[in-house]
Amino acid sequence: MTRIRRGYIARRRRTKIRLFASSFRGAHSRLTRTITQQKIRALVSAHRDRDRQKRDFRRLWITRINAVLRQNEVSYSYSKLIHDLSKRQSILNRKILAQIAILNRNCLYMISNEVIK
Asked: What totals of helices (H) and strands (E) does the chain contain, helices first?
């Protein structure tokens, strides 16, 4: 019985996985089994951290807005500003407010004074 040459499909699949893991260190980029394990682990981490990144940025924006507001007036806080903005049905979200707080504090003070009235 003659030797049968294997097809190219499995080799193509492995090279695709190797390209994904080419930047990993050590056996994580050389051995096929560990490459597949590390690929699964990397994709799980990426999926989890996309949600975590949204959470972290929202916390950062809230902290920045609150810090700038408390410098101006001690009694007026972030939660009151957001409550008043939602009552007025304003389209300013937290990301925009945080950028305004960093780049132009006076503008944020004007917005907060306008919302109070």
From this structure: 5, 0
- Taking a C-beta distance cutoff of 8 angstroms, is the pair 70, 37 a contact? no
Q: What is the tens place of the pLDDT at every residue in 24-40?
A: 999 999 999 999 999 99
The whole-model pTM stands at 0.76
Both tokens of 52, joined, read 């975590």
Look at the domain 8-116 and name its fold.
c-terminal domain of poly(a) binding protein (1.10.1900)
Which DSSP string do the residues of 35-90 spell out, in sequence order? Answer: HHHHHHHHHHHHHHHHHHHHHHHHHHHHHHHHHHHHHH-SS--HHHHHHHHHHTT-
What are 113's two structure tokens? 């004074």
